[in-house]
Amino acid sequence: MSHQFTEAELEAYLDEALSAEEMAKVETLLRSESDLTDRLRAIHGRRDAGVHSLGEIWRRHRVSCPTREQLGSYLLQVLEGEEQEYIEFHLQEINCRYCHANLDDLRLRKQEIEAETQSRRRRYFQSSAGFFDNQD
Amino acid sequence: MSDAHQADAMLVQRIREGDTDAWGELIGRYEGRLLAFAESRLRNRDVSEDVVQESFIGFLNSLPNYDGKRRLESYLFTICAYKLTDHLRREGRRPTISLSSTSNTSGGDWQVPGRMRPASSIARSGERRQIEEESLVKVLREQVEQWRRRGDWTKIRCMELLFVRGRANKDVANLLSISEQQVANYKFDFLARIRTQVKKQGLPEEVFPDLYE
Questions:
Q1: Among A45, A46, A126, B212, which is least packed by CB within 10 angstroms?
Q2: In terms of domains, do A13 and A52 share one?
Q3: Closest to B84 measured CA to CA, from A43, A27, A1, A5
Q4: At what angle do helices A81-92 and A97-133 cross, to 10 degrees?
Q5: Shortest Cα distance from B22 to chain A (angstroms)?
Q6: Per-residue pLDDT tens digits for B66-125
Q7: Helix axes A20-30, B20-42, angle to 10 degrees
Q8: How many A-B residue pairs are in contact by the CB < 8 A criterion?
Q9: Can you tell me the ipTM of this complex?
Q10: CB-CB: which of B110, B132, B163 is closest to A46?
Q11: Quick one: A69 and A57 in the same domain?
Q12: Contacts of A12 in chain B (CB under 8 A)
């Protein structure tokens, strides 16, 4: 059962970098599977020996992650087709936790801006309604 | 150095000089994404805010050791991940893995497979390891940037699946609708190129076993 997770994914688990759902799955399996614990210890051992993992370095330094600006453009769907598709892939297949965090934050800020914009427009409307009525 | 990286470097310098406005600016810039990161696991806004607060304090405490080579956002996410892990362990949600093995396997005693000299004989300082890591990051970023400029999105996807997710060639081929041979070719070319760059920089082979499969 522990082999549903690759070595790279277990490295990400140790770094709290898998998606929340995957983190929870590993934690559940750890309670019953000793071979999963052994695999994690082996990764610890490799790290302690000072040996680098290409995937770990790639993930930790976000080598291929889109920038926050690109994620913002992705959210607005204004990127070129292939770039838009690549970011979709990066979020869905690679399930990059850091990019998801950025995207969640961007969505919230967009909603807050929209709410502020609506609120501002309502104030303009309410403060000018009297003048509008006087046009007749 | 990208514009964002430069902006962050200047912000950090101002913080080092005691500029409280700069500190407020850093918090404003990064708290949202750190909060989203913590909350995705904790599902509790109040506790997530505590973790983020601890992360910011952790950053300030680590400032004398932060040399700015690592991108600020990644550094902050790492600190947040540590604080999150600590919290989850205290809650009992995240099991602690003891480093000594109680099973018959030699899980805690890692050795480099194949012909390379044993990892236990590779004695390097933390600083040296950091230099090696930064050198490899630079090489990887240049390669990915080249692929991006050329619109070689399949290669970027391929390497992410192979190395970030650790998927087998066959699975990668299926996901990307290309042949397994094509995946193998892309991987071979990529590793050959990275090995050349690593050698040019005089970095030891045995600390990058993934490059010499």
A1: A126
A2: yes
A3: A27
A4: 120
A5: 20
A6: 988 889 999 999 999 999 999 999 998 888 877 654 443 343 445 545 544 444 455 677
A7: 60
A8: 181
A9: 0.87
A10: B110
A11: no
A12: 164
